[in-house]
Automatic annotation (TrEMBL):
InterPro entries: Ade_MeTrfase_dom_2, DNA_methylase_N6_adenine_CS, M_m6A_EcoRV, MeTrfase_D12, SAM-dependent_MTases_sf. This is site-specific DNA-methyltransferase (adenine-specific). It comes from Promethearchaeum syntrophicum. Its EC number is 2.1.1.72. The keyword tRNA processing does not apply.
Length: 281
């Protein structure tokens, strides 16, 4: 009997994750390209969905990048560490607040990766958020049986990451690697739909209008190089005007992370592309 291949999926729940949008994004993926580059990898939904031989993933969140590297190189040790955690409120807060103590500096990278996977699955609403000092500050989620040690998926992710270059840094780093016919997918922190909708708590750094404009300059540079570039963002006047020289397609997304449960419905998003899209899209 042929052994069933397990398709990997994101090992962390991440604000703005694209698992719900994959069916709409897939037709925009070029039929052929050289290296896949994702400068805001986050949970990596599109990366894991695609079968890739050459890929570079980038993010400026050191906690996230450490987790990717540990899964790539030390997945069995990570699994052993995850198995030691307990879904208990008092224990959760002890683990959450450990980075406030001096002893946290002595923790290994494996222990730090294990900590963030555990907290991500056990915290309220699966939200990754840090304060201005970079400390994780999401309360306990009170879930009955969270799967914080998904061994099957972690091993599938480990396999998918073999040969992948994992880089800690800003989105501009893609310019060091991108060449003609590479495919770059940008999924940045979105331009807020309102003054209260701006969630950029993935890192202590914020992502405002200036950063969006700098991203557009990088998009333009990649276009000049002959790269195939795709970008997701909010359906706002600012973004529509910023990318008016490119093809803009409206898509409908369902957001699972919102402090107001009534606002976790469908919202408009856009996909910006600089190359011909498959017919029928």
């Amino acid at each position: 009997m042929k052994k069933k291949t397990i398709k990997p999926h994101p090992f962390l729940k991440w604000a703005g994750g694209k698992r719900q949008l994959l069916s709409q994004i897939e037709p925009f993926v070029p039929d052929s390209f050289n290296t896949y580059i994702e400068p805001f990898v986050g949970g990596g939904a599109l990366f894991f969905y695609l079968t890739l031989k050459k890929a570079i993933i980038i993010d400026n969140n050191p906690v996230l990048i450490n987790a990717y590297k540990i899964i790539q190189n030390n997945v069995e040790d990570l699994i052993k560490s995850l198995q030691k955690h307990k879904n208990e409120k008092e224990y959760y807060y002890k683990i959450r607040n450990i980075d406030l103590l001096e002893e946290f500096k002595e923790w290994s990278d494996i222990e730090k990766a294990s900590r963030i996977l555990f907290m991500n699955k056990c915290c309220y609403n699966g939200l990754y958020r840090v304060n201005s000092k970079g400390h994780f500050n999401v309360p306990f989620g009170r879930y009955s049986n969270p799967n914080f040690c998904d061994e099957v998926n972690l091993r599938a992710v480990h396999k998918a990451l073999q040969g992948v270059e994992i880089i800690l840094g800003s989105f501009e780093n893609c310019l060091k690697f991108a060449q003609k016919d590479d495919f770059i997918y940008f999924d940045p922190p979105y331009d807020p739909l309102s003054s209260t909708a701006n969630f950029t708590g993935y890192t202590k750094e914020k992502f405002g209008k200036n950063e969006q404009e700098n991203l557009k300059k990088v998009f333009d540079e990649l276009n000049e190089r002959g790269c195939k570039v795709l970008l997701s963002n909010s359906y706002t006047d600012f973004i529509l005007d910023l990318y008016k020289d490119y093809k803009i397609t409206l898509v409908s997304a369902k957001r699972a992370i919102n402090r107001d449960a009534l606002k976790r419905g469908n919202i408009k998003e856009i996909l910006v592309s600089n190359y011909p899209i498959k017919s029928g899209v």
